[in-house]
Design a protein that fits this description.
395 residues, alpha/beta, 4-stranded antiparallel sheet, 18 helices, 18 strands
Length: 395
Amino acid sequence: MAQPAWQDPVPLALDTAPVPEYGSGSLADLLPTLVAGQGVPGFAAAIPELTPADRNCVFLIDGLGWEQITAHPDEAPFLHSLLPTSRGGTGRPLTAGFPSTTATSLASVGTGLPPGEHGLPGYTARNPETGELMNQLRWKPWTAPKVWQPYPTVFQLADAAGVHTAQVSAPDFEQTPLTKVALSGGSFLGRLSGEDRMDVTAQRLAAGDRSLVYTYYSEVDGKGHRFGVDSDAWRGQLMYVDGLAQRLAEQLPPRSALYITADHGMIDIPFDEQSRIDFDEDWELRAGVALLGGEGRARHVYAVPGAQADVLAVWREVLGEQFWVASRDEAIAAGWFGPTIDERVYGRIGDVVAAAHDDVIITVSVNEPHESAMTGVHGSLTPVEQLVPLLEVRS
């Protein structure tokens, strides 16, 4: 039945938002499960569908969500053929975690912790100590890495337990703070070409009786942001990375398990005023807001002191039919950031958290011109962004 024109809009109920499968089927559960099977102390198998292997390899393809693989069998024949193997042969995806964005997801992968514990709760988040927005992908402004994320990585703990541990990625990533707090431990081997990364990954996997090797490819995400996941440029990258995955799979040493996953999916957003709401041009959304963090589909809204309730009410009234709009405590209680929130992380989460339900983003044309111009985006709780593969090849 159509809603009468005079009736106030009804905000989306928060209990309709899909919650990541923390503790049983999220990215944060992957490495703890793998190293538990290798006998590393202090870990338990959180993803019960996976079978232990002596040598474990994780190939993370930035931006290649579950729905992108299922929709492109011709461009990704090898990856598509592996869909039935996902999540231990159940043919099911994992969930990325919230927000579904690179800095948050890589920290979840590497630490084995959900965002509420590792403390990277978005693309940008407020540093409660300084009051500034902290870009957690580019690490600006500079913040002491071990203060921001104090937990050891799974790689470090596996290396200490005698597992041969390595990361194979682009050379530029070796010294970044994000790598230090999320992915360090064992050896880092920088290789420029994708083919070299696959070859070196296979070599490092064979180098130990128990091995844990991680490798990464970024340009699927890069082409998606620039041109969209409906572009020829993006499809070209998908075809290329499909070949890389097959190249690695064909070189696996004995007793190995290769897991191909991603940090998030992606969705294209049209360039029109209905789909792109410009915060800088909307006086209602700006009222009472001191800082706007996160990204277009997963916003952290930091209110002027005393204005939290008013900001929540306005954002819910203006956006509530298109976004799940929650207070900080409501988002925490709903489990968006995981089952527990460290005290140091609490103030990094917005007073209001807005997660997109519809095909829409909140841009910031003045302060975020690059991000506002992106075609493909991600960050929210919807399946196209949230679901990621866990494709498996064994030798």
